[in-house]
Amino acid sequence: MLFKNYKNCIYCNSQNFEKxxxxxxxxxxxxxxxxxxxxxxxxxxxxxKTYECxxxxxxxxxxxxxxxxxxxxxxxxxxQHNRSWSNLINFLKKSKAPDxxxxxxxxxxxxxxxxxxxxxxxxxxxxxxxxxxxYQLNKKFYSNIYTHTINYLSSRQVAGKNKNLQKKGxxxxxxxxxxxKFFKNKFKKKKRIxxxxxxxxxxxxxxxxxxxxxxxxxxxxxEMLDLEILQLHEKNKVKLDLFGIFHTLDHTMQPSLILNFAxxxxxxxxxxxxVNEQVERQHLFSLTNNFLKYLNKKKIFTFNxxxxxxxxFKTPELYFICTKKKNYKDRLKKIISNEKKFNQ
Length: 344
Ligand SMILES: [Zn+2]
Hints:
Layout: E1 3-4, E2 17-19, H1 29-38, H2 42-45, E3 49-53, E4 59-62, E5 64-65, H3 67-77, H4 82-94, H5 103-110, E6 115-119, H6 127-134, H7 139-155, H8 163-187, E7 194-199, E8 211-212, E9 215-216, H9 217-224, E10 227-231, E11 240-246, H10 255-265, E12 266-274, E13 285-286, H11 291-297, E14 301-304, E15 317-323, H12 326-343
Parallel strand pairs: 6-7, 6-11, 7-10, 11-12
Antiparallel strand pairs: 1-5, 2-3, 3-4, 4-13, 8-9, 12-15, 14-15
Helix pairs in contact: 4-7, 7-8, 7-9
The protein binds zinc ion.
């Protein structure tokens, strides 16, 4: 089964949809690969139409790929999360963290973060900003971290190789791991905050095949960024100051559960997402600016910070910070109104 009917809103479960007048027919490199590998026609793709949920205002495609096919798209056809890995490589080669404008500064004004988590993709958010704060910027260090982490994590990929090569692999592991420890120790600057990456293994998320040079993003992040990888059910282990969801709330089959989960374990949640009027066909759904109104109605205090972080956007995107707690809301409101005054 290629397509499935998604009759209920993936976020709020409503069936109250209205078809959009503008439908996306544009092709992109994800869609080209999907069409090629699934051997489907462009005509098939045109069966997918975009609707707006009249209850929570997200945009959702229907029909859309069945979960089995979705898993194939994000795990096999386009297993590598291109943008996420590009962020990491750019950071290590050009010392440039992913562009979130002044967001990181704004968050630092808002609170002192000691415990921080992100969801699903490790190089999309601000983990790299924390790395830049906790270790000295040094070109040799950055390039060594890249090379040794790749070499360490691939050195024991010795299946099918003879005993001699297996032994060589082990020697390489030991050597590269020691190098990583040596360099991190030499360049560490200050006390590190506790970092966690929560994963939900959704069929809409890059995961098991999100690899670069035979190394998975989660393992790379775990070694380089000093973070712990947790499943959702392990939430009792942590109490967080801040939870970042960077371009991954629209890459899970359970977006409402994830956002509420983040709000429950953390003082604040920051979300970054697409808000294109036209939902590209490789996405099941997209959040919208109006979605924030729905969250406010649900007693989730929400602040749109897209315009105050001084970022130049190439496509329509949204940043918002939210909380369920009144006292944290008041603090957030104060910080944001200060920023607005400052920007005028
Ligand atoms: Zn809805």
